[in-house]
Specification:
The protein is built from 7 helices and no strands. The protein is mostly helical. It has one domain. Helix 1 packs antiparallel against helix 5, helix 2 packs across helix 5 and helix 5 crosses helix 6. The chain is globular and about 55 Å long.
Length: 185
């Protein structure tokens, strides 16, 4: 399959989990070994901030880019038409976006440590999103939390649905009043 296709082979699809797992581990090890000892708790807060920031990125991209902007809307519609297909953004594209829109601005605004910690948090959020989104479409679970995430994401996939854009959390759906916990109709 071509590298920039939205529908991926199972190898390409699952490679995303490995690439980001390795990337997050490398950043965590880098921070653990080289970050100034006296500032480690400060960097831990940047990681948590990156996780929180990811939830907003997830919501905004899903609601305003994937559901509204061509050509992303057409690509995302493929996922709504066939939610069990291995459809996702190519790893090279998401890596470039994280580097250009998270790491580089943080590096320019602060330093290598803050940029690495913030990016680590965003990557951990993206990994969580990837796992939860995959689970919503492919796993059975006894976890009440995952059952709730699956239910809300399933409602999002209903025909004509314009609600429930958050996959890992509904916080922003509540903030922006786009939550729906019952079927349409």
């Amino acid at each position: 399959m071509p590298i920039f296709t939205i529908e991926q082979s199972d190898t390409t699809y699952f490679a995303d989990f490995v690439v980001y797992g390795v990337g997050a581990t490398a950043l965590a090890v880098f921070l653990a070994i080289y970050a100034p000892q006296a500032l480690r708790w400060w960097f831990a807060l940047w990681v948590v901030g990156g996780l929180a920031y990811w939830t907003l990125i997830e919501y905004v991209v899903h609601r305003f880019v994937l559901h509204r902007l061509p050509p992303f809307r057409a690509m995302h519609e493929m996922h709504h038409i066939n939610p069990r297909a291995f459809i996702g953004t190519p790893t090279i594209v998401t890596m470039a976006l994280f580097a250009l829109l998270v790491f580089l601005p943080a590096l320019l605004a602060a330093n290598i440590w803050v940029a690495s910690a913030l990016t680590l948090g965003v990557l951990l959020g993206y990994i969580t999103y990837s796992v939860v989104h995959h689970a919503a479409h492919h796993w059975r679970s006894s976890s009440a939390w995952l059952k709730r995430r699956k239910k809300l994401h399933g409602l999002h996939h209903q025909s004509g649905q314009t609600r429930n854009y958050g996959v890992t959390t509904s916080v922003w759906d509540h903030v922006f009043r786009s939550i729906r916990s019952t079927p349409v109709g």
